[in-house]
Amino acid sequence: MSIRKIWSVQDIERAAFGDAGGVSRRGALKTLAAASATAAFGPFAFPRPARAEIGGSLQVMAWEGFDLTNELKDWRAKHGVTETVAAIGNQDDVQAKFIAGNPPTIDLAEYNQGYNHLYGDDLKIIRPLEMAKIPNYNAQDIFPGFYQQPSWYWNNTQYGIPWTWGLNSLVYNKTKMKAPASYSDLLAPDLKGKIALVDDTLATWPVAAAIAGFGPDRYPNLTHEEMAKVFDNLKAYRDNARVIALTYGDVISMFVSGEILAIFCGWSGIPVETAKQKVETAYVIPKEGATMWCDAWFTPISVGNPDTAYGFINEAISPTVQAQMAKAVTAGTVNKNAVALMDPDTRALFDYSDLDAVFKDAPLLGIPPRKSDTLATYSDWVDAWNQFKAG
Amino acid sequence: MEVTAAATEPRAPAGGETAGGETAGGKTAGREARPPGLPALRSRRWMVGPLLASPLAAFMILFFIVPSIVLFAYSFWIAESYHFEPALSLRNYQKAFLTPIFYSVTWTGIKIGAITALLSLLGSFPIAYYIVFKTRSNAILYIVVLTWFSSYLVRIYAWRTILGSNGLINSGLQSLGLIDQPLEFILFSPLAVVITLVHIFLPFALLLLVSALRDVKPEYLEAARDLGASFAKTLWRVVLPLTSTGVIGTFMFTFVLAAGDYVTPQLVGGRTGVTTGVLIADQFKKTGNWPLGSAMAFILLAVFLFAYFLVLQGFKLLRWTPRSRWH
């Protein structure tokens, strides 16, 4: 039987819709509506069938550079996993995906420790983890500060797996200025127009609060008056700043182009990136201290491939991958066994022999309360921050 | 064959054919009787326009009108920490109006939008005039439009490089000995935002103006000159009134896009980087207050409509809108 080469419109309609008299207007409209809805919302609204073993596609939301694309290459090849990554530019990008009614099918995403209760309790976008499928997360191998701590474990439930961390602190161009001993050194007249702040509220607000006298024992629970004092105090830095940079990538390009000599609150990865472009910057913790950030993997409620997500998390906190990750992004490890696998420079970034002291000097902090009658809420802080930025 | 025949027929009045091949105007008198079925085809001719427009109309209804209505409804709801409660409250509008920063950044956006639109219009009008009336070639148009082939972000970063402390302008001025220290006010300032936005929107303005000026017949310009009008008077009394729709459209199109842009101000504007768009985006992403974000968006829409009204009134005062119509 030869293949039919000539098709009339009626032939096509009959083939598509059967012999029941072609396409009715209502039927065509229904088909069109369904096709439009599928095209518009298909990638987001319809979950894939759940898999019961590691393999298949994995949708990941991760900070740029933190998606483990290189580190988990062998693992993906071994299990036939195809990873699709959506970059996070700001932690708020994550919840924005899940509150629109149709949560997208994302298997894995990251949350900063400050967002734990917002995601877990308020928005309820976290699916509790099945810990039997993440054996690498155990008390023997994980540093105590990252094992079943309140940022990731509450109500006897594990919501997130911490996997990378670092410190937010001052970064400066070491060839063009002296090492600052205090944040206030950035207010020197000869640095006017040579420093920058960054539009990263998670990093900047705690430091701004600390230099205004509200250390980790007070921040993020400040009254409206105290919050106002924080921003009033920060104005001097803004007035001495060239710009409030949009991202850390922007900060790096401004260090390289010579627009700025120091950033009020950067992170340990900046010197590595500027060094690649022949600009020597250094990361320093001034006397007022620094703050710690820690990102955790979580499986959203709309996870479509949970077993592969668990496999990914388990591999992400294995000693080898942790050591590779620490070097690649200049961050800290949560796995004790990874320290021995690091090169000396990466190992020297943090004092792994006394992590308790690191936690004490630079504690993990939350974000201002979502609701409060007496304290400044997160929304109040965002408004005040925008007001501050606009000057 | 039937379709071809129908297409060459003069338009018949609604109701189709009269007996003996006559239409109401009598223009087809004496023609042969049409084949059966043709009146049916003609009676459906009115459907051609709506059918052709329907894909775009459906798209706009589905992805603009409906979401806008939903957004408008949201603006009256009440929100607290990502939880929305249906209501009919003006609280969000009240809060937006009571937020001092909302005024200041909206005013900054309007100023940037107006200056950008004016400069784009003034910069592109002479080029458009030259392309339409002085040369038959579209080469200049293609060269200007060629800049679109580079990404929007690439163009912004290119301007950062040009305007930076060690950029092209500062290096050039320093090497010429005209300045000792880099001029730092040219980057991370409103000036930088306007320069970048004019570069981005000038090709848009040029295309719209070329299209508008091509509606002006050269014979009108010749007639004006024959009657003794100078170039300026011809421009003022003939060209601008005839192209007022295009000129207003170009200005408003550029104004709305520039005033609403929140990427360029953030990347090159320094403190000008906080725009109404940033405030609105923060309500949707950071604080989860969609109703307040929606209210701010509709206030901004009202501001843009008011600006359109003002521009239209300005044109009427200058007697540049000979035909009173809704553009």
Which chains make the largest contact? A-B, 31 and 35 residues
Class derived from helix and strand content of chain B? mainly alpha
Please give the radius of gyration of chain A in angstroms: 25 Å
Would you report the number of β strands of chain B?
A: 2
**Which runs of chain B of at least 5 residues are low in confidence (pLDDT < 50)?**
1-31
Q: Helical stretch count of chain B? A: 15
Radius of gyration of CA atoms of chain B, rounded to a whole number = 27 Å
The global form of chain A is globular
Extract low-pLDDT stretches of chain A: 1-47
Sheet/helix structural class of chain A: alpha/beta
Q: In terms of quaternary structure, what is this?
A: heterodimer
Percent helix of chain A: 25-40%
Plain-language structure description:
The complex is a heterodimer of chains A (391) and B (327). Mean pLDDT of chain A is 85; it is low at 1-47. Chain A contains 14 helices and twelve strands. By secondary structure, chain A is an alpha/beta fold. The longest helix of chain A is centred in the first third of the chain and has 21 residues, at 25-45. Chain B contains 15 helices and two strands. Chain B has a two-stranded antiparallel sheet. In chain B, strand 1 (78-80) and strand 2 (83-85) form a beta hairpin. The radius of gyration of chain B is 27 Å and the shape is globular. The chains are: A alpha/beta (391), B mainly alpha (327). The A-B interface holds A 36, 40, 90, 92-93, 95-96, 99, 118, 122-123, 193, 242-244, 246, 250, 257-259, 370-371, 378-379, 382-383, 386-387, 389-391 and B 62-63, 80-83, 99-101, 104-105, 108, 160-161, 164-166, 184, 187-188, 266-267, 270-271, 273-274, 278-279, 282, 284-289.
